[in-house]
UniProtKB/TrEMBL annotation:
Xref: PANTHER family: IMPORT ATP-BINDING PROTEIN, LIPOPROTEIN-RELEASING SYSTEM ATP-BINDING PROTEIN LOLD
Protein name: Lipoprotein-releasing system ATP-binding protein
Protein family according to the UniProt entry: Belongs to the ABC transporter superfamily. Macrolide exporter (TC 3.A.1.122) family.
A GO cellular component entry from the record: plasma membrane
Keywords: ATP-binding, Cell inner membrane, Cell membrane, Hydrolase, Lipoprotein, Membrane, Nucleotide-binding, Transport
Organism domain of life: Bacteria
Leader peptide range in chain numbering: none
Organism for this UniProt entry: Sphingomonas melonis
Gene3D superfamilies: P-loop containing nucleotide triphosphate hydrolases
């Protein structure tokens, strides 16, 4: 079976005055179907840049990005949008929920954009949120939820369209240690239950050890 994600020779550099800054230096990375991989490295090591590359969120990269066996680096803007919508889910350090929508609606919306009917989308949202312990908070808006609850909604939203790969950038970095542990445990349990793969950037070595495999990024190179 093809890897969900495979990058080959992925590089990213930019000019800063007279100097060229090399952020990624030929990254070769694979993620197998259903595998949860921790991407570890200090601030400035290139973790977010790598996630932006494989998430097809920015241009300016050199090298190959294969998602589900398809060369994503060669897609035009529309093709990248379709691939993000159909195959990828995203969780960020800050939840980025829509403030005027309640928890259920925040999880329903990406499904409607994907073409789902409203009733199945509602059912899917309720199922995911309930699995994350939010069955009693379905109609609450983000401002009525705690930080941990908001991040759980963000996790449910990322999984709403059953992505093959979830990309997460410090998904518990804005939470206290106890809440981070609880949210990550629920995140990993749900991702595994859904059969998705995940690439999760973190600087927390303790949390990284809870994942299937750890890869380390140092000065733009995987070690």
């Amino acid at each position: 079976m093809n890897d969900v994600l495979r990058t080959t020779g992925l590089t990213r550099s930019f000019r800063q005055g007279e100097e060229t800054i090399h952020v990624l230096r030929g990254v070769d990375l694979s993620v197998a179907p259903g595998e949860i991989v921790a991407l570890v490295g200090p601030s400035g090591s290139g973790k977010s840049t790598l996630l932006q590359a494989v998430g097809l969120l920015e241009g300016g990269f050199q090298g190959s990005i294969m998602i589900g066996g398809e060369e994503a680096a060669k897609l035009d803007a529309h093709g990248r949008t379709i691939m993000r919508r159909d195959r990828l889910g995203f969780v960020y350090q800050f939840h980025h929920l829509l403030p005027d929508f309640n928890a259920t609606e925040n999880v329903v919306l990406p499904q409607l954009v994907h073409g789902a009917e409203r009733k199945p989308a509602d059912d899917r949202a309720v199922s995911l949120l309930t699995a994350l312990g939010l069955g009693h908070r379905l109609t609450h808006r983000p401002s009525q939820l705690s930080g941990g609850e908001q991040q759980r909604v963000a996790v449910a939203r990322a999984l709403a369209n059953r992505p093959a790969l979830v990309l997460a950038d410090e998904p518990t970095g804005n939470l206290d240690e106890h809440t981070a542990d609880v949210v990550l445990a629920e995140f990993l349990r749900l991702v595994r239950g859904e059969g998705s793969a995940a690439l999760i950037a973190t600087h927390n070595e303790r949390l990284a050890q809870k994942m299937d495999r750890v890869v380390r990024l140092h000065e733009g190179v995987l070690t």
